[in-house]
Give the backbone structure.
Amino acid sequence: MSSKSSFSWPMKILFLFCGMLVALFVVVLVIVLMFGADTSNASYVIAMSVAQNLMVFILPVVMLAMMSRRAELLPMSRTLWMAKGPTLKSVALVVLVWVVALPAMNYVVEWNQSIEFPSWLQGLEEELRAMESDAAATSSHLLNAQSLGMMIFMVLVVGVLTGMGEEIFFRAGLLGTMLHGNVNKHVAVWVVAIVFSAIHLQFFGFVPRMLLGAWLGYLLVWTGEVWTPIIAHALNNGSIVVAAYLTNKNIISCNYLESVGSSNHWLALGSAVATSLLIVLFMRKPARTYNKLTK
């Protein structure tokens, strides 16, 4: 952080979380008044998703950028990590890793979902699985497109908008602020990844979501911009919408994105090794020197 700064990085993190909580209260109040509190109402779920990304995730970071510009004379692009766009190399890495890592991630997802608690924690497990079921039922409204037009709309909402909202808050906002504050990049990446996964309140998806968060965080560190993590997040979410649509229309017999490698130990291991080698190969040299952007 610049020596001229009047705000420490913990203060900025606190500002982001306070802004998120205030915005969340307002969004929930407005959406409930408009649509009621019925999570089985598709309009409610879609409106909540759009408002959450725009107001709860993006707005606090934009406000922080405006505050930093006025108080510290820092350009907004520095806080938002949008000074430069993605490179062809970074986009190629995102696509290749998404394809190669799929069996390994499916295996981790299957493992995390199959975790069983000891008998004395059976009540807690039942509560957590009930929360998981409720979240899945709510998410189903975002994955139940019955027409091509609706599928494209949901890709924009679940893929593009959610990818942009969550990456601006968690990577540009939280992680970027910690990097500007000279926090160790590995510590910062994993702390934000844990927060990113925990805030979804889904224990039986915690580990794969944490790994995804770490991957997105390292993309920010490697590229020095938030656009590449946004593309990676949008690709991950958007592909789920498309696969669900193709499955619902019986164009494919099953959702291959969720099944490939989920029960094949050797395929998952090969996927993990190949993914690691691919990342090391690409990331030997930074896409851009991010610390030049943090000064």
Q: What stands out?
A: The two ends are 7 Å apart (CA to CA). Residues 40 and 255 are 23 Å apart (CA to CA). The mean pLDDT is 89. DSSP finds twelve helices and no strands in the chain.
